[in-house]
């Protein structure tokens, strides 16, 4: 895989009902679902019909018993999974799953940052470049947003490991700055302080849609819940933050065409 160290290369939904997730995200984002193949028998793929964007699987029983709930996770591409996993632990993170090979797919490890926010590191074995994160393609991830308990510490942790840099910042009143993060000259997302009365520290991934109002309607009509938006953000687009019927939080971003 030709992605650079620190790129977001994949997204994954852990859910309690894979059939329901397939229907929901098909209705909201137009994704098509298919089995991943023999090497990953319990794993399925979401795609746009042109490119694969994300995977999904049933939340493992052990993870559920430990308190994990349905969620979206991100994969960060690295040059060497083993050394990155070690570096993460030395920086105060946690290793939940050791470096593991998936034949024909790549090597990955499930980690968490010092605040307990889970993510993966991966070195893909396939040819080409992942476009799961692409801000110009409908149905792909357009934005990676971290809500942290300690914004400064979170920025230092991820930047030190993945080479991310601080970009512009947008004041958010009592919540502090909404700090953009840049990688190789591209703004890939932001880190913000978590609201005290909001959900725990987490990554939220925003997927691109053609019409935010139609997408918001599809969320509500198919059993999801909108927690915020549609709201305009810089760039003339609108966002919503929602949970799917199983409780996994996600975001959508796109223009407002219906009104």
TrEMBL record:
Enumerate the spans annotated as VOC domain. 7-124, 139-255
Under PANTHER family, the record lists: GB|AAF24581.1 (PTHR33993:SF14), GLYOXALASE-RELATED (PTHR33993)
Name the InterPro entries on file.
Anthracycline_SecMetBiosynth, Glyas_Bleomycin-R_OHBP_Dase, Glyas_Fos-R_dOase_dom, Glyoxalase_6, VOC_core
This protein's name: VOC domain-containing protein
What SUPFAM superfamilies does UniProt report for this protein, alphabetically? Glyoxalase/Bleomycin resistance protein/Dihydroxybiphenyl dioxygenase
Query: Which PROSITE patterns is this protein grouped with?
Result: VOC
The top of its lineage is:
Bacteria, Pseudomonadati, Pseudomonadota, Alphaproteobacteria, Hyphomicrobiales
* A Pfam family recorded for this sequence: Glyoxalase_6
């Amino acid at each position: 895989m030709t992605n650079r160290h620190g790129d977001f290369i994949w997204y994954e939904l852990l859910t309690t009902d894979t059939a329901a997730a397939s229907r929901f995200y098909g209705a909201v984002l137009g994704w098509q679902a298919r089995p991943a193949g023999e090497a990953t028998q319990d794993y399925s793929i979401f795609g746009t019909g042109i490119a694969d964007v994300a995977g999904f699987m049933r939340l493992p029983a052990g993870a559920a018993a430990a308190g994990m709930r349905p969620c979206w996770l991100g994969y960060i591409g690295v040059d060497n999974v083993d050394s990155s996993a070690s570096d993460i632990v030395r920086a105060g993170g946690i290793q939940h799953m050791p470096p593991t090979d998936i034949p024909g797919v790549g090597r990955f490890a499930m980690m968490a940052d010092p605040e307990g926010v889970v993510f993966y590191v991966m070195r893909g074995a396939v040819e080409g470049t992942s476009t799961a994160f692409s801000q110009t393609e409908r149905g792909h991830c357009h934005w990676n947003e971290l809500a942290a308990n300690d914004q400064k510490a979170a920025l230092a942790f991820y930047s030190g490991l993945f080479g991310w840099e601080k970009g512009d910042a947008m004041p958010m009143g009592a919540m502090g700055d909404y700090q953009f993060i840049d990688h190789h000259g591209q703004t890939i997302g932001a880190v913000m302080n978590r609201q005290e009365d909001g959900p725990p520290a987490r990554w939220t991934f925003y997927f691109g849609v053609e019409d935010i109002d139609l997408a918001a309607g599809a969320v509500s009509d198919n059993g999801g819940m909108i927690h915020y938006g549609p709201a305009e953000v810089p760039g003339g687009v609108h966002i919503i933050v929602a949970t799917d019927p199983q409780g996994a939080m996600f975001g959508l971003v796109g223009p407002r065409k219906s009104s």
